[in-house]
C-alpha cells in the first residue's frame, strides 16, 4: 500500500495532467528511494479508483489513462490545508 505521502504525490501528478501508470512511475518514482513504490503503484492506482479519487480510462490497447476526480481534488486541497496548519515550510 502506498503511504499517504505517495498517494498524494500520485494525485498531485495526475492533477497536473492525466497520465498512464508507466509515466506516473517515472515521474513520481523519482521522489521515492527504492522499488517498493514501483511495485505497489498499479494496485494502489486501483485503490484510488475504487475510492473515487482517480478515474481510469482507455488510452490505447496497452495502457490506461488516469485522471484525478473532483473528489480527488478535494482530498488534495484538504491535505494542503492540513499542511499549512501543522507543517512549517
TrEMBL record:
Pfam families: PadR. It comes from the Archaea. Gene3D superfamilies: Winged helix-like DNA-binding domain superfamily/Winged helix DNA-binding domain. Residues 10-77 form the Transcription regulator PadR N-terminal domain. This is PadR family transcriptional regulator. The lineage of its organism: Archaea, Methanobacteriati, Methanobacteriota, Stenosarchaea group, Halobacteria.
Amino acid at each position: 500500500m502506498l503511504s499517504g505521502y505517495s498517494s498524494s504525490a500520485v494525485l498531485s501528478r495526475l492533477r497536473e495532467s492525466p497520465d498512464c501508470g508507466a509515466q506516473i512511475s517515472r515521474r513520481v518514482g523519482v521522489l521515492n528511494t527504492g522499488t517498493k513504490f514501483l511495485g505497489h503503484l498499479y494496485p494502489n492506482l486501483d485503490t484510488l479508483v475504487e475510492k473515487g479519487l482517480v478515474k481510469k480510462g482507455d488510452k490505447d490497447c496497452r495502457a490506461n489513462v488516469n485522471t484525478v476526480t473532483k473528489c480527488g481534488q478535494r482530498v488534495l486541497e484538504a491535505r494542503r490545508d492540513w499542511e499549512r496548519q501543522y507543517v512549517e515550510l
